[in-house]
């Protein structure tokens, strides 16, 4: 009887040790990831400020930071993986929608339609994204290190009130500016007849995307 209890205790200890090691590994990875993403968005912020100081205009700014922006925004797909494997307790669907909507704005709108890259609305959502991400990733980093400055905590939960509507306005105006070019070019659209017997109009797809921005109750919960 004693031997069986001892075996159970040993097995329980081994399981606890495995959980601790997995937890430590996950924490180390998340700390590294959040530091890297904070640094990446800080690089973007510095690049944007330097460009504007040197050139005195926002025209050409997007193209100057496009490669860095695409890399760090696309790399954020890793966060969907974090949710999927359970090291971050957030909905996979919610995180996936948030990350993919950003990637859509970068790759399929701003990057694909050069004519809109100098729009003020592009700069607006870029500035909002940059401030938001620096705040968010630095908050996660300090939280993981158990040393969260009051200012970072305050910024994380209060800047949202201003940044969220500004970001939405910037993104909507950018999509709106893209509509005439999409309609004229027929980009990403499929017309009938074709061998797949499928019709798709990217112009109307963008209108649907714009309608999806209509505030709903859950956005503010």
UniProtKB/TrEMBL annotation:
GO terms for biological process: fatty acid elongation; sphingolipid biosynthetic process; very long-chain fatty acid biosynthetic process. It is a multi-pass membrane protein. It holds the Pfam family PTPLA. InterPro entries: Tyr_Pase-like_PTPLA. Its main location: endoplasmic reticulum. Pathway: Lipid metabolism; fatty acid biosynthesis. Its EC number is 4.2.1.134. The chain crosses the membrane at residues 26-48, 122-139, 159-179, 200-216. The keyword Lyase applies. It is found in: Endoplasmic reticulum membrane; Membrane. Keywords: Endoplasmic reticulum, Fatty acid biosynthesis, Fatty acid metabolism, Lipid biosynthesis, Lipid metabolism, Lyase, Membrane, Transmembrane, Transmembrane helix. It catalyses: (3R)-hydroxyhexadecanoyl-CoA = (2E)-hexadecenoyl-CoA + H2O; a very-long-chain (3R)-3-hydroxyacyl-CoA = a very-long-chain (2E)-enoyl-CoA + H2O. GO terms for molecular function: very-long-chain (3R)-3-hydroxyacyl-CoA dehydratase activity. GO terms for cellular component: endoplasmic reticulum membrane. Catalyzes the third of the four reactions of the long-chain fatty acids elongation cycle. This endoplasmic reticulum-bound enzymatic process, allows the addition of two carbons to the chain of long- and very long-chain fatty acids/VLCFAs per cycle. This enzyme catalyzes the dehydration of the 3-hydroxyacyl-CoA intermediate into trans-2,3-enoyl-CoA, within each cycle of fatty acid elongation. Thereby, it participates to the production of VLCFAs of different chain lengths that are involved in multiple biological processes as precursors of membrane lipids and lipid mediators. Belongs to the very long-chain fatty acids dehydratase HACD family. This is Very-long-chain (3R)-3-hydroxyacyl-CoA dehydratase. It comes from Scophthalmus maximus. The lineage of its organism: Eukaryota, Metazoa, Chordata, Craniata, Vertebrata.
């Amino acid at each position: 009887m004693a031997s069986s209890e001892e075996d159970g205790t040993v097995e329980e200890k081994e399981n606890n040790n495995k959980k601790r090691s997995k937890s430590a590994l996950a924490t180390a990875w998340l700390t590294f990831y959040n530091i890297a993403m904070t640094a990446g968005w800080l690089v973007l912020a510095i690049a944007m400020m330097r460009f504007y100081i040197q050139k005195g205009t926002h025209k050409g700014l997007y193209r100057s930071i496009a490669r860095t922006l695409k890399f760090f925004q696309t790399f954020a797909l890793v966060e969907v993986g974090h949710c999927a494997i359970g090291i971050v307790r957030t909905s996979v669907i919610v995180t996936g929608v948030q990350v993919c909507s950003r990637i859509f704005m970068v790759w399929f709108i701003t990057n694909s339609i050069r004519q809109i890259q100098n729009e003020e609305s592009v700069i607006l959502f870029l500035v909002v994204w940059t401030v938001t991400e620096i705040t968010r990733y630095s908050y996660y980093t300090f939280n993981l290190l158990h040393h969260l400055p009051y200012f970072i905590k305050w910024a994380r939960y209060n800047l949202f009130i201003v940044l969220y509507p500004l970001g939405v306005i910037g993104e909507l105006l950018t999509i709106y500016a893209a509509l005439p070019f999409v309609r004229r070019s027929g980009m990403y659209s499929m017309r009938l007849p074709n061998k797949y017997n499928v019709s798709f109009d990217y112009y109307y797809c963008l209108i649907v995307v714009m309608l999806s921005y209509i505030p709903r109750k859950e956005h503010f919960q």
